[in-house]
Structure formats: C-alpha cells, structure tokens
C-alpha cells in the first residue's frame, strides 16, 4: 500500500509505503552517498591570475558547462533510470533470496557440524604452534633499537 502526500507550502512530495521510511523528492541523497559527485565549474576549470581569457568567454563557458552537465544528465537518466532501477531491484532481490535461503543455512550447517574441527584446530594451535611463537617472543623481547640522528650533516 502506497500513499502520496503533497505539501503545497514546502513543495515537497513524499511517498510513504507501509512499513518503510518516507522518500522525499527534494532530498534525493539523504545519506550523502554521492558526495564526490558535487562537481562545479570551478572544480574542473580554473584560470590562474597570470593567464585569463576574456570575461565573456569565462561567463559563457561557465553557463554552457552547467547547462550541458544538467541536461545531459537528465537525458541519460531519462533513458537509463527506469531500466537500471528495475535491474538493480531484481539483482538485490536475487541476492537477498540467495543470502537468506542458501548462504546462511549453509553457514549455520557448517558451524553446527564443524564444531569438532574447531576444537581439534584449537588444540593443535595450543599444543604445537603457541609454544614455538611464545619462545621466539621471549628470545626477541630483549632486543632494542635506538635511532640516533647524525649531527654532522
């Protein structure tokens, strides 16, 4: 069940689905996932004080950059947004289903049935490997390194 609410004072359109959070048309990146895409003209084109073009060239370049970036994005998203959203939704649905019904049951099965391997492996580590590294650590514990700076340079 989906509700659509329009707040005419703030010009904010929100979609609310039962059991989910509200989706706002105004705030389309509420978690800041795409912070790196906030690119402006000044981030791409910058003229140092020693080399400058004509003022009109700079203004028209700035305007054309912004218009081209905005309208190319809108046209590309018009063509690709719906099919890619559908594909992403299907992909995440398949991955969720595999994770819930295949991967986690297999992991739990391994954890339940392989408890004896964990016990044997822990015993091997404690009996054979741990004393070896403890003795190496005790042998090397007295080694100290002093770094001195040569003042002649």
Helices and strands, with pairings:
Elements: E1 2-7, E2 12-17, E3 22-24, H1 41-44, H2 55-113, H3 115-140
Antiparallel strand pairs: 1-2, 2-3
What's this model, at a glance?
The chain is mainly alpha-helical and 153 residues long.
Q: What structural keywords apply?
A:
3 helices; Caveolin_CS; mainly alpha; 153 residues; flat; transmembrane helix; transmembrane
Specify the helix fraction band.
55-70%
Following the backbone from N to C, one meets helices and strands in this order, namely EEEHHH
Q: Give the beta-strand count.
A: 3
Percent strand: 5-15%
- What is the overall shape? flat
Uncertain runs with pLDDT below 50, 5 residues or more? none
Average pLDDT taken over every residue = 84
Give the N-terminus to C-terminus distance in angstroms: 77 Å
**Largest sheet, order of strands side by side?**
1-2-3
Description of the molecule:
- The protein is mainly α and 153 residues long.
- It has a domain at 1-35.
- Helices cover 58% and strands 10% of the residues.
- The chain contains 3 helices and 3 strands, in the order βββααα.
- The protein has helices at residues 41-44, 55-113, 115-140; strands spanning 2-7, 12-17, 22-24.
- A 3-stranded antiparallel beta sheet has the order 1-2-3, with no helix packed on it.
- β1 and β2 (12-17) form a beta hairpin.
- The mean pLDDT is 84.
- Its main location: membrane.
- Pfam families: Caveolin (PF01146).
- May act as a scaffolding protein within caveolar membranes. Interacts directly with G-protein alpha subunits and can functionally regulate their activity.
- GO terms for molecular function: molecular adaptor activity.
- It is a peripheral membrane protein.
């Amino acid at each position: 069940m989906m509700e659509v609410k329009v707040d005419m004072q703030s010009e904010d359109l929100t979609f609310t689905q039962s059991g989910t959070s509200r989706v706002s048309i105004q705030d389309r990146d509420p978690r800041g996932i795409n912070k790196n895409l906030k690119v402006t003209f000044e981030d791409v084109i910058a003229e140092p004080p020693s080399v400058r073009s004509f003022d009109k060239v700079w203004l028209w370049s700035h305007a054309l950059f912004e218009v081209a970036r905005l309208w190319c994005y809108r046209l590309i998203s018009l063509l690709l947004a719906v099919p890619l959203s559908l594909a992403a939704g299907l992909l995440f649905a398949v991955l969720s289903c595999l994770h819930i019904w295949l991967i986690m049951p297999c992991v739990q099965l391994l954890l339940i049935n392989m408890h004896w391997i964990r016990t044997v492996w822990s015993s091997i580590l404690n009996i054979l490997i741990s004393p070896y590294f403890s003795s190496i650590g005790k042998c090397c514990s007295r080694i100290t390194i002093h770094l001195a700076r040569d003042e002649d340079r």
